[in-house]
Amino acid sequence: MATLMLGQTLRGRLSLYTVTKQLQDCIWLARNQNKETVVVKSVGHFRIHNERDILLHFQNKTNLLRPLVDEIDDSSTPHSIILRYLDDDILHASNSQRLTRPEVKFVARKVLEGLLVLHEEGFVHTDIKPSNVLVNYGKDTRFEEVQLADFGSTVQVGSTYAQRGDPIGTPIFRSPEAHLQIKWGTSTDIWSFGALLISLLYGEGFHIFKPDVPVDHDDYDVKILMKHHRCFGPFPASYEEIADQERLAVLAWIMQNSPSETLRPFHLTTTREICQEDKELVLRTMKLDPRDRPTARQLLEDKWFCHS
C-alpha cells in the first residue's frame, strides 16, 4: 500500500522534499529545495531504522556505500530516510548492454572494496545482488562511480541473526550455509559476490543458480542447493563440522539425486563462454564450505585485478 502521494511535501531535518515518482512499494523519487533528485524510503519497519543506523555508522568513512542524506520525522507518515540518487543499478545496466570485461572488473573491484569496509568492522551486508549495486555513468568511461545499497538487513557477525543462521537475502544469490540455516558470517557475502560476478560475466540476465520451478514452489530453495552442488560440488565432508544431522541429511539427499555426470559443469565451461582467468577467480570464490572462501581483501589482491 502506498505510504506517500505524488506531489506530497516532506519536511526533513535539512530540507523540504517534494515526492515526484514511485519506484517500488516503499521507494520514491523526490526533489529537494535545490531541485536535486533524491531517493525516499518510507516504510513502517525496523529495517528502515537499521539502514539509517548502519549508514550513520559509516557516514563520512567511505564513498563506497550509498549515503544517508536526511531523515523525515513526520508523525503522519511512516519513518522515512532520504538517500542519494544514482543513475542506475548494475542489474538494469547489464541487461541493457552487456558489460565489457574491463567494466566487469571495475564494478567487481568497487563491490569488493565496499564489502571490505563492512567486513573489517564486523558487518555482513546479507543481500549482495546486482540490483543493490548502484552506478553513475561517466563521460569517458561507462561507469564512473559504484556504490553498495540496501542496508536494511545488514547485521554484525556476532548478531543473533547470524549465529542462528536466519534466512537472508535473495535466494538465487544466497550462500549454501544461509540456505541450510547454518551460522553464517562475512563469507556469505563473498558467495553472493561470486554469483553476481558470474551474472555480469555472462550478461543478458543470466543466473547460474536460477531453478526450474517458480519462486513460490515448495522445492525452490532445495533446487538452488542442488544447483550449488552440481555447479561447484560436491559438498565437502567438512560440512559435518558445521551442520547438524538434519542439514546433513538434506545434503545427502541432494548428492544422491545428482548423478555424477551432471556435476561441476562450471569447470567444463569453454573459453568461448568465459576466459580461463575469469573462471579461475570464480572457482576460487565459489567454495561450498564458507571457511574455504577468500576474504574481500584476498580477492582484491588476486592477479585477476592486475590484468586487463
From TrEMBL:
Entry-linked InterPro entries: Kinase-like_dom_sf, Prot_kinase_dom, Ser/Thr_kinase_AS, STE20/SPS1-PAK
Recorded GO MF terms: ATP binding; protein serine/threonine kinase activity
Stated name of the protein: STE protein kinase
Keyword Nucleotide-binding: yes
TM helices/strands, residue ranges: none
PANTHER family: SERINE_THREONINE-PROTEIN KINASE DDB_G0283821-RELATED, STERILE20-LIKE KINASE, ISOFORM B-RELATED
Keywords noted in UniProt: ATP-binding, Kinase, Nucleotide-binding, Transferase
SUPFAM superfamilies linked: Protein kinase-like (PK-like)
The Protein kinase domain, residue ranges: 1-305
Taxonomic lineage from the root: Eukaryota, Fungi, Dikarya, Ascomycota, Pezizomycotina
One CC-aspect GO term: cytoplasm
SMART domains, per the entry: S_TKc
Pfam families (UniProt xref): Pkinase (PF00069)
Matching PROSITE patterns: PROTEIN_KINASE_DOM, PROTEIN_KINASE_ST
Presence of the UniProt keyword Transferase in the record: yes
